[in-house]
Amino acid sequence: MDDEALLDRARRGDRDAFAELVERHQDGLYTMALRLLGRPEDAADVVQETFLRAYVNLPRLRPASVRAWLFRVAVNAAHDVHRRTARRPVTSLEDAEGKILDLPDPALGPEASAEARERAAVVREALLRLPLEYRACVVLRDVNDLSYEEVAEALRVPLGTVKSRLSRARAQVATVLRGSTVLFPALEEGG
Amino acid sequence: MGERHLDRLFSEAYDGALRGGDRQRFEGHLAGCERCSRAFDEFRTALDAVHDLHVARMPVPVILPASPPAVEPGRRGRWRGLRAAAMGPRPLGAATVLAAAGVLAVVIAGHVHLGGNSSSSDASRLSLGTSAGGGASSSAFAAPGAASVSGPNASLCGAGVPFSLSPSAGATPPPGFDLSASTSAAAGTLVVAVRNTSYHAGDRVLVYARMSSAGAAAAGAPTAGTGGSAVSTVIVPCVALEGARTATSQQGGAAAAPAPKEAPLAQASPTVAGNANAAPLLELTIPPDTPRGTTLRIVALVPPGTTGVGAPVPAEAVLTISVT
Prior knowledge:
By secondary structure, chain A is mainly α. Chain A has helices spanning 3-11, 15-37, 40-56, 66-85, 114-129, 132-143, 148-155, 159-178, 185-190. In chain A, helix 6 (132-143) crosses helix 8 (159-178). By secondary structure, chain B is an alpha+beta fold. Chain B has helices spanning 10-14, 20-32, 34-51, 94-101, 120-128; strands at 62-65, 105-108, 160-164, 179-185, 188-194, 198-199, 204-214, 231-235, 238-243, 281-285, 295-302, 315-323. In chain B, 46% of the residues are buried.
């Protein structure tokens, strides 16, 4: 059953259908929020908030794409969290690297190499260096694999804006990562 | 010179989204431009690394209002009176939205499977059912103190809901519920917790309250136990908000004592959750006219003889909050 059918059932009072939507999307939304905000607790808040908003809005919810709509709500919630926590001088970007950020990765498993972890840490840091607006674009497209159209829906911007913003954001990410000897070992060898 | 290079097309080229002339121009250019060819390789390597970031898993269960997502008029039954508050702009915060919804909360247990038990979905469904076992237990909590819990859902108070979980799972309050109290009894541990020590008049207070009782389930439960020790019972305690303006006695006859207007200081709204990380949340409303400086107590009580508890064990845990 696709998302829209589930949503339709949920709208008619089927809580299990909504629970299924939660099951399907919670990890994607959490990943997005985590990469956007850097703090697991903030990311979990965003997901919680997203589904609550979806739930209480169900009767009038008619999105073309449930997934894109959920991401839109989550992005808005993440912005709220970002605004709220921006003044919190706790976790700097430097501190947000690596262990603090990272959750156990079931995909990598215990045998995950140190190199893989290091790569991931470098990438996460590169993302966190982007302005939030750009970061959201890259995360939605490159981490969550949303289509251009879905990104446009999630960010509520025209398709052209998505493309140009994504282009600039990716260029910035690439610029940062080009300096990483973890990703580009030749840099180290070549001096 | 700068226009010669085609960095601006890297992004769409990476997605394979270049069309027609742009695509031909890009490919032709890369074939003859070592700088762009190398830069695009690096761009691709960098973006591939972003793609390689793993999917993180939502570490805590999502909590949702327990009232039906869409309620048909006339079918609200016991939920009448818990109608969702008007929608509108709200500050961020799960508790805030729950409060705005004016309803109970329930956990969608997600995929957080602890202990390898497999019946989480059934359990979740069971827990979601606001009528699950409710009527049957209505007489089980006609006990001192419990009567001060009022409202349409009082009949669920004290209901035990069996489900699979590790006996210790969920014994501690969820993150953020920093003010807590617990009482150990023979049948298990009663825990009650809230987020803050002080609230404003009119606030809705989310209360985490549960008593877990391993192995004592099944009796009279709708899903008779399937596996001995794997089945535990979570008791949703009666939770009452008591304060200076309520009848002072928590022992005996509290229901009759307060004036009707002030009686529902305690609007505990029991709800139960399904899975290992279950977070039974209840909601209390601090009366809007509560004066500042009032000290209130949140009393969680599992009356003797509660269905689902193996022994006639009363247990009580009390928190103190203030109204500012």
